[in-house]
Amino acid sequence: MGASNESRGALVVFEGLDRSGKTSQCGKLLSYLEGLGHSVELWRFPDRTTSVGQMISAYLTNKSQLDDHTIHLLFSANRWEKRSMMEAKLKAGITLIVDRYSYSGVAFSSAKGLDFEWCKAPENGLIAPDLVVYLDIPPEKAAERGGYGGERYEQLEFQKKVAQHYKLLEDSSWKVILCFISCH
Ligand code: NYM
Ligand code: MG
């Protein structure tokens, strides 16, 4: 994470349930690292600006219906279409703070009942994060936070399942932040 152009940027991913505070914490880390003089960019998945991203957005806002496998692959395709740009940025010494990544892909789709290994397969070959910050908030607490936005998946019972599936994905790149009182 050096400021020199010769060193690679870091890939830092934030994960967690909807309303767990990822977007706020990504913003805080961005300001902090910028203050230290690092080149940093904030990214998010799904990236709704691409044509794949627009299909995802239509699905999440209930404007379209898609088979569970199909939407899973679209989320993955949305990461694949950004892979080479991510690689170029990291090589140029830019640190990327990413709001959701492959872990969301697997946790949300497998929580619907899709096979866990099948869900992981299309993520193979994407750039591995240097650090995953998992904001661990009780689903009930997340639901209380000003309510959900009304998108697909934003329901307490489903989020409880997502939390269980996230737990299966924890690896040595994770730092779990317990948000039992408040993440702010
Ligand atoms: N989501 C996000 C997935 O189901 N799979 C994925 O691969 C990703 C990146 O989309 N409920 C879900 C999690 C969220 C929803 O994300 C939209 P956000 O961060 O609210 O825009
Ligand atoms: Mg959301």
TrEMBL record:
Transmembrane segments: none annotated. InterPro entries: P-loop_NTPase, Thymidylate_kin-like_dom, Thymidylate_kin_CS, Thymidylate_kinase. The keyword RNA-binding does not apply. One of its GO terms (biological process) is dTTP biosynthetic process. One of its GO terms (molecular function) is ATP binding. Its EC number is 2.7.4.9. It is an enzyme of class 2 (transferase). CDD domains: TMPK (cd01672). It holds the Pfam family Thymidylate_kin. Signal peptide: none annotated. Residues 14-177 form the Thymidylate kinase-like domain. Keywords: ATP-binding, Kinase, Nucleotide biosynthesis, Nucleotide-binding, Transferase. Pathway: Pyrimidine metabolism; dTTP biosynthesis. One of its GO terms (cellular component) is cytosol. Belongs to the thymidylate kinase family. This is Thymidylate kinase. It comes from Gossypium armourianum.
